[in-house]
Design a protein that fits this description.
4 helices, mainly alpha, about 0% strand
Amino acid sequence: MPNGLKWFAFEMWRASVPYGPMSMSWANEICGADAEERSIVLGLMNAIGYAFNAWLPYLTYPQVDSPNFRKGFIFSTVAFTTQYGITALVWWMQRRDLLEQKRRTT
């Protein structure tokens, strides 16, 4: 594998690390007007995240596949792509809701 591709993959992997805290902060901001909604959304985000992180690495990155984690690399690529798609969808929905609120108040 070329060194440039290895560095690109490494940097893309590192770019996903701050996504969790940033999405939690963003959800907190989006749900800021309703304390119950905020607690449910943030609680579910934490619970689902920890539940998946508890067992998913054992299936996607098993030690017997080392050092070529084909299943893990494919899963991570699909998961990151889906994650960015969901982020774009949430951004679009938040923007739509803000424009609708602005229209109702004027």
